[in-house]
Amino acid sequence: MSRIIVVTSGKGGVGKTTITANLGYSLARNGRKVALVDADFGLRNLDLLMGLESRVVYTAIEAMAGECRLEQALVKDKRQHHLVLLPAAQHRNKEAIDPTQMKEVVGQIAKTYEYILIDSPAGIEIGFRNAITPAKEALIVSTPEVASVRDADRVIGLLEANGIEKIRLIVNRIKPDMVQMNEMMGVDDVLDVLSIPLVGIVPDDKRMIVASNRGEPVVCGLPDSIPAIAFDNIARRLEGEKVPLLDLMAAQDNLINRIRRLFQG
User: Fold this and answer.
1) What angle in degrees, to the nearest 10, is found between the helix axes of 187-194 and 146-161?
2) Given this model, what pLDDT does residue 260 score?
3) What is the CATH number of the domain that holds 252?
4) Global pTM?
C-alpha cells in the first residue's frame, strides 16, 4: 500500500521543496521506492534542488495529456536508483491541470512506488487543491515565526476539511541559540499553537543553502551533517521507528568544541 504524503504549509519560503527533496532521498536510501511529485506548476524548483533539471524531457502535463507515457516523464535520480521525480511544467500555470487529473496521475504512480511525496505550492488556491486531493497524509512545514505558524494553522483546518486526518509537523530553520535567548519561538511554542504531532526538527544551517545551490540534497552530499541526520530521523519516524529528537543546542556545542580542538591541537 503506497503512502501518499503532501508537504505543505500555506506560506511560501519555509523550505517545503528542500524538505521534500531531502526526505525523499532519505527514504530511498533506506530502500524504499520513492516518487517525488512537483505540484508547483509554473514555478517548479524541485528538479533544481535535485540536480535533475537537465534531464527533464517530459513533465506531468504531457503525461496527463497522453503525449508521453508516465514512465517517460519520471526522471530517475542517478545517485539513488530508488528515487524518481515527476516534474511540473515550467511554462504552464496552476490552472493547467485540475485535482481530478492530479489524483489520477498520482494513482498511477502509486501502483509502483511505496512513498509519493507531493511538493505543494505556496498559497491555498487551485495549486494547493491539486496537491492535497490525492494525499492520504500531510506534513506541515513551519518555521518558528508567527506568520508561518498562523498560516500553518489555517492549512491544518483545510486539510482536515478535505478528509486528511494524519497530519504531522516539521519545524524548519530553528536556531537554538536564538531560542535560548528568547529571540525566536521554540518548538514547544509552535506545538502549543498547532497541536499536531511533531515528526521532526530541522536546524537553520548554511550547508542547506550550499547543497541546494549545487543541486544536491544535503542528505546526499553531507550525510554526517546535523541537517542530514535530522532528515534521516524524520524518515525513520515515518517508518514507525521511535527516534529521539535531536538536541540541537548540544549538537551545536559539540561542533564548536570540535573546531576549537582542531585549532588547539
Assistant:
1) 40
2) 47
3) 3.40.50.300
4) 0.92
